[in-house]
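thoughts on both lines:
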Amino acid sequence: RITADAARYAGKSERGGIFIGLRRWPHIEINEATLPMRWDLGSMFAFRRSSRGHQSVALRRWRDSARTMDWVGEWHSHPQSIPVPSSIDLGSWKGITADRGAPMVFLIVGYAALWVGLSVPGKRQPIRYVEAERSPAGIAFKPE
């Protein structure tokens, strides 16, 4: 859903949302991703996610799962074939991770590739991950 949404708006507007999943230490399992909502703002070179709709979805999943499903990260698109985090991305991720006090997954969708990273509280840079395995059940990533 994420890559299809980003491709549909490629060259017109950056897109984004959040990840909801399970923290299975030391792993993070992503079970759901929100797509952009009407309160979000996207332009050719920026995406600003409003907490309004995404937070409602995350809270509903958290309550419905007996407090096991959690907000575990975010995604957005870039107008690049092979995306690279901007200084704005890195600063935002560092703040989100520090505020959350837990590791967070971040994904950037480009035209031809994905950038996946794990931001850990107290670390300066996210750990970059690459695809390790793909199956009908999903994609597994490993540190680069």
